[in-house]
C-alpha cells in the first residue's frame, strides 16, 4: 500500500473489516463513499449523503445498544453479551467511519465554497460595484420622477374612532400640562 492509499480513508484497512457485515442497501450507501464518487458531488449532494449516512448510523447505533441491553439481561454479563452483539457493533462502527468520511469531505467542500464567495465579494468591491457609502452612482440620490401624488388618509377605520383617539390624546396632554 502506498502512502497516498493509506491517507485515503476509503482505502484504510478498517473499512474492509466492516464491509462483510453490511447488507445490500447498506453496501450501496458505502459505495457512494468511494473517493471518485465522493469528489464528483457538490455541496448540496454531499449534504444529502451526509443526512442519509447519519440516519443509518443513528439507526445502527440505537439497534446495537438495544440489542446489547437485551443480551446483557439474558446472559447476565456484559462479556458474554458483547460476543453475541459483535455484528451489530461492527455495523454501527462502519457507519461511524462512513459519517467521518462524508463529514470531512463536506467540510472541505464548504470551505472551498466559502473561499470562492469571499473572492467574488472582494473582486466586486475592488471593481467599485460595492454597496458601501463610497460606491459611485450615476444619479444624485433623489427620486427620478415625481410619480403619482398620494393623499394621506388620516383615518384608522372610522370618523368616530378618529375623534375618540384625538380626544384621548388631548386628555393626556391636558393631564401632563396640569402637573
Oligomeric category: single chain
**Average pLDDT score:** 79
Number of strands: 0
Radius of gyration: 33 Å
N- to C-terminal distance: 92 Å
Q: Which segments are poorly predicted (pLDDT under 50) over 5 or more consecutive residues?
A: 1-10
How would you classify the helix and strand content by structural class?
mainly alpha
Strand content: under 5%
Quick one: biggest sheet?
A: none
What are the secondary-structure elements, in order, as H or E? HHHHHHHH
* Overall geometry: elongated
| Total helical elements | 8
Helical fraction: over 70%
What does this protein structure show overall?
The protein is mostly helical and 179 residues long. It contains eight helices and no strands. The chain has a domain at 3-126. Helix 5 runs antiparallel to helix 7. It is elongated. The relative contact order is 0.08.
What is the structure about, briefly put?
With 179 residues, this protein is mainly alpha-helical. The chain has helices at 3-7, 13-19, 24-31, 35-40, 43-75, 78-84, 86-126, 159-177. The longest helix is centred in the middle third of the chain and has 41 residues, at 86-126.
Provide key terms for this protein.
179 residues, mainly alpha, 8 helices, 0% strand, elongated, disordered N terminus
List the helices and strands and how they pair.
Elements: H1 3-7, H2 13-19, H3 24-31, H4 35-40, H5 43-75, H6 78-84, H7 86-126, H8 159-177
Helix pairs in contact: 2-7, 5-6, 5-7
